[in-house]
Amino acid sequence: MYKIIGNSKIWFIVSILLAVFGAAAILIFGLRISIDYKGGTVMELQTNNPSRVSIINETLRDREITSFQVKESGTNEVIVRMPAITNEKHISTLSALKDKLGEATETKYDTVGPTVGRDLAKRSVIAVILASLAIIVYIAYAFRRLPRPLSPWIFGLSAVIALVHDLLITTGMVALLGNFYHWMEVDVLFITALLTIMGFSVHDTIVVYDRLRENFIRNPHKDIAVSTEESANQTLVRSINTSLTVLIVLVSLLLLGGESIRHFILTLIIGMFVGTYSSIFVASPLIVVWHQRRAKASPVRSRFATSAHRA
Asked: Could you read off the pLDDT of 274-290 as tens digits, one per residue?
């Protein structure tokens, strides 16, 4: 049996360091915001011209378009990102590009205004907050019949603390990669990845919690640290195998998928890895710590108040 709860101080130190690293990366490097949130125009062109990138760069500069980004995506495809332009300027710019590139086809054109971008950003933040609150309520309801003095609300709050840990570390890695490699951006796909990571992580956590509940019901007089240690070890292999299966698929998509979804897949890979770790090594020890502190604060000494080191 692995000493997961017995070594909880080590896991907490590792998690705090990783979370501090994530927060520091966000504060120091910042996040590269896509046009989904700050507004702008995206054009996708398909052309066989071997000098397509340099020609597009030169054409946009000639038309006095600044702060643009030109990136190749897949075979003979180019993604152009620039500040928001009018429909008239889009038509004239596209005509100029086709004249210089020769045979060229616009496969996508999208413009997002700054007002729409701010509204979308607000909705994205609200979506993450509401998802977190819903998870707390759901877990508290699902575990409402826990033996006393265990609290279902502590189960829900512990799960959400682990989720915040996952999102902070994942977002910090995105900030780091965005600063050094200039292709990780915060867009709608990034928010989708965060919500997906939350769902996967809480699913993994509930598996551990469900086994913990079964063990409590079966042995109500057993110390909480011992029961949690047994439960975490009983679900450890299952959690790792499930995560590895998902990661194999994601790595395949990262290597073989298109450029347009690569940052989304990489965000998922980082989040899945961190989420698997937190479900076992953060969410479970938090249950023990909170209930032991509760027992010590109670005037009546609880049978659950023994030290985790006995595990």
From this structure: 999 999 999 999 988 88
Range(s) of the chain covered by CATH 1.20.1640.10: 8-34+116-310
Report CA dihedral (177, 183, 187, 188) to the nearest 10 degrees.
-100
Residue 147 DSSP symbol: P
CATH architecture of the domain with residue range 8-34+116-310: Up-down Bundle (1.20)
| Listed residue (241, 265, 271) closest to 253, CA to CA | 265
Instruction: Please tell us whether the domain made up of 40-112 is placed in CATH 1.20.1740.10.
Output: no
Residue 73 token pair: 């995506």
Q: Which two tokens stand for residue 113?
A: 């205004």
pLDDT for 24-42, tens place per residue? 999 998 888 777 777 788 8
Residues 202 and 272 sit within 8 Å (Cβ to Cβ): no
**Both structure tokens of 242:** 């499930």
Cβ proximity of 232 and 277 under 8 Å? no
Three-state SS for 265-311 is HHHHHHHHHHHHHHHHHCHHHHHHHHHHHHHHHCCCCCCCCCCHHHC
Give the span between the Cα atoms of 143 and 139, in whole angstroms: 6
Distances (CA, A) of 17 to 11, 12, 58, 268, 308: 10, 9, 46, 21, 22
Tokens of 136: 């707390």
User: Residue 50 has what DSSP assignment?
Assistant: T
Distance CA 292, CA 288 (A): 6
Q: Under a CB-based contact definition with an 8 Å cutoff, are residues 278 and 162 in contact?
A: yes
Measure the CA–CA gap between 266 and 270, rounded to whole angstroms: 6
